[in-house]
Design a protein that fits this description.
By secondary structure, this protein is α+β, with helices and mostly antiparallel strands. It contains eleven helices and 13 strands. The strands form three sheets. The protein has a five-stranded antiparallel sheet with strand order 11-10-9-12-13. A four-stranded parallel sheet has the order 2-1-3-4, sandwiched between helices.
Length: 306
Amino acid sequence: MKVLVLHTFPPDDVADGRVVDEVALDGAANAIGAAIPGSVVAGTRGGAPELLALLSSHSPDVVFNICEAPLGRTDLEPHAAALFEWLGLRFTGATSTTLALCRRKDLLSPILQERGVAVPARLRRECALFPCIVKPAAEDGSAGLDHDSVCDDAEALARALGRIPGPVVIEEFLPGREFAVSLWGRHDPDNVCVGEMVFLNGLRLITYAAKWHIESADFADSPLYYDSVIEPALRDAIIAAAKGAWYAVGARHLLRVDIRLDRSGRPRVLDVNPNPEISPDVGISRAVREARWEWRDFIHKLVEWA
């Protein structure tokens, strides 16, 4: 079987406050290529003509897709998957529909609700309840989230809204424990691993710095543990919510779902990530290891499931 590990190059410039590591994928691609004997690793700017030329020259049976930023734009991620679909190619990871949906928080939440998956209450500026949280409606990777995203009064809400260009969502801020649920399987989430985010020193949410600025205080103050004590009934409810999200968005192969407890201790889905970090030892790869899988076996399964 010919496997092409295809990744996009990071942009030459990134927006203020963002880091190139967010879309620097060559390390992950090379590690994946090393795990698949005989595979070819190729980087691309991600334009359609270049992608077509690479696919034509390599004629892969399976594309291991880590094209997260075609032309340096994360909003074009679904387009690469759509091209593979149009060509009838087998590829790993989410479909173009799932990628496009999960990026749009303003569209995702109503769909989850319609499928019976509990989410935080959506609020309007004129009748907001406090505390609330303001998020960009069409970003991922915690972009646009910082300490001031949680608003305790109307003045804080106005400031948060003024900082974010483009559409936003305003949601109730949930005060409970937060969990990162990793799921993987061909079409069904047959494998699940639950980690708990712990917030220290007054941090209340996963900010952009907590996710990407590894030397920041926010990163240090938001460790993820896989040995937390979770009561069986609560664990079952968390997993049920995550699996509900899997089916609601039409996921396949791998998914991460962020879940937080409301004031009554009930799980609610905060975010759904159909393309979680896959480098060895971090992201979903760490969850796979915590579930006693070998990372190499996980990579091989993704190819098999494509």
